[in-house]
Write a structure and sequence with these properties.
There is one protein chain. By secondary structure, the protein is an alpha/beta fold. The protein is built from twelve helices and six strands. It has helices spanning 8-23, 28-34, 39-46, 54-63, 69-80, 96-107, 126-134, 142-154, 173-177, 183-197, 248-263, 268-281; strands at residues 111-115, 167-172, 202-207, 221-224, 233-238, 241-245. The protein starts with 7 loop residues before the first helix and ends with a helix.
């Protein structure tokens, strides 16, 4: 039965199968004929509306003469996994992008974030997150506000795997000094950063105001590593909402951007000292 609302991960699987078809120089009709199906079915598979079995993924890869076994195995995993994630409890409560982001973090082999406006989501305290969401215009109904805060707190599950999926956050000093609420919330948020930075697999780095050559003030992004680099994904916030980036050239540009921003930051130990000093100033 066709899916009414495929997730970003399901759509990504379809997009990757379409890319393989296009690389093979086949139209959807030609691919359907070679696989003994119809073009409507191919369209549904490539849009993520229809599921696909392991056997069909491998048959498709063979028909498209794809010999990248690691990519094929990763696509099979995407097609056959059955995960009832915690984010499903927010379906029909929050916009789909919230669920897609949680799913991305859950499956990522690593997560790298740049925060130049706010502390990155998984590192936020409940009061900090509530202050950020309360500032939205138009104002959110109380029920949705609390659902968004609860969802953000749930995202800490991505940090709870203790090194299994490394998490790196690079934060600008302006983020640490901006009080989204009051002094108490600001101090608690800095304490939270210090605690989280001591966890296995979690790295927090800071870019001070006085660093030379930093032009990345608008570089906020979340980079999630796939099982193979071709399946990496970037999530960026835009004026119209969250956008997921997965084109090869864009991914390479985002990798380069993260490296530049990271190179402008202090080493983790010096970053912890920096945050500790800011905490004592409050």
């Amino acid at each position: 039965m066709p899916r009414k609302q495929p997730t970003a991960r399901q759509r990504r699987l379809g997009q990757e199968l379409r890319r393989l078809r296009e690389a093979a120089g086949l139209t959807a009709r030609q691919a359907a004929e070679s696989l003994g199906t119809i073009s409507v079915t191919m369209s549904q598979i490539e849009s993520g509306v229809a599921g696909v079995s392991e056997a069909r993924v491998r048959r498709i890869a063979a028909q498209y003469t794809c010999t990248d076994t690691q990519l094929i195995d990763a696509l099979v995993e995407m097609a056959t996994e059955r995960v009832d994630g915690w984010w499903e409890e927010y379906r029909d409560i929050l916009p789909p992008a919230f669920l897609d982001l949680a799913e991305l973090e859950y499956h990522a082999t690593f997560v790298q974030e740049i925060g130049t406006a706010h502390v990155t989501g998984p590192l936020q305290t409940e009061d900090y997150a509530r202050a950020v969401f309360t500032y939205w215009r138009p104002e959110l109904p109380a029920s949705e506000l609390e659902a968004r805060v609860a969802h953000r707190m749930h995202r800490k599950a991505a940090l709870a795997r203790d090194g299994e999926s490394p998490y790196t956050a690079v934060l600008h000093e302006s983020v640490l000094r901006t009080r989204v609420a009051d002094r108490r919330v600001a101090r608690a948020q800095l304490d939270q950063l210090l605690r989280q930075s001591e966890r296995p697999g979690v790295t927090v780095r800071v870019i001070p105001f006085d660093v030379d050559g930093f032009g990345g003030a608008s570089a906020a992004l979340l980079y999630g590593g796939g099982r193979v680099p071709a399946l990496d994904t970037v999530q960026k916030d835009t004026p119209s909402g969250a956008a997921f980036v997965d084109a090869a050239a864009q991914l390479q540009a985002m990798r380069t951007l993260f490296r530049k921003v990271e190179s402008a930051s202090l080493e983790p130990a010096r970053s912890r000292d920096f945050v500790h000093r800011l905490t004592k100033e409050l």
